[in-house]
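pasting for ref. prot 1 ->
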Amino acid sequence: SSDLDQVEVSPHAWGSNAPALGVRVASQFGRSFVRATIASGIRAIDHEDPRYFYSHKTNPWDRTKYAIVHTFEVRNDNGSMMPAYSRFLGDFGMPFLAQTWRPNGINAPDALRSAGIGLGMGIGMNIAQEFWPDVKHALHLGPGAAALVSPGTIH
């Protein structure tokens, strides 16, 4: 994140003052924008449905496996399953593109690490979406709490 990069002064060439924090925040925004743009473009081409569909399974391990698998596999417009190309291209393409505006240039290990973090975040978000109704029920949260997780989740 931009705050952690500011504390670590990374990249060093951007400095450690207030304008440097602004550059890091803009860089982080750019990374998010590039990832979302790549993913949206791919979805428009191959008709992926980006929403999460609950498993309706009862075993917690089966639900967790379902959430993990559906990070890499999504529905298309006709409801059949397909690889989540938008996730792969967004998570792996963004780090390489974003490094073009960083002073150190392209570094494949850093880009691959960033892609792995993106995939891990996707897995974590799917697991959160799968179990959020249970958490919401256990905490006696009202209908407004559903907005804490993606509004594109299908029951």
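and prot 2 ->
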Amino acid sequence: SNINLEGNWNNSGTYTYNAGDIVSFDGSSNSTITGATDWYVLNANNSGGVTVSSGNQNIYFALDIDQGAFDANSNTVTLISDASGTAVLSDIGTGSYSGNLTVQRFVNEGNGWYLLASPLTGADLEDWNGESDMTGFTGTELPSYSFKSVQSKGL
């Protein structure tokens, strides 16, 4: 189902989304989101902008910013990734995003190769070393192992 708002969202309880639900903030005056909320699709189509005033915002399919400024305002906005799928930041159109955005990437257990990348700022390979098994170079648990598990190239 679709919910179209030309106002504010105040979640003081529990909002349970269904797959396919779209909550769209429309209009021309700034809308605020108050309270932690799980969204399937969160659409900002408000030329006056959308501001998160409080609460963690978890998005399970897409954050779609058509127009206006979306401001996380020091709150946590997370694109969720799990066995069911990975949320995306859709094309931003004429809008903008400000604030921190956490992007998850689900990795299924087992053997295999996964393409992973570190954040653009504030992290290095050592941050990942404690989280996954790395081999074949100094600083890993198995530095003399003949197979290098990570390949990097300086730019």
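The mean pLDDT is 85.
The longest strand covers residues 57-67.
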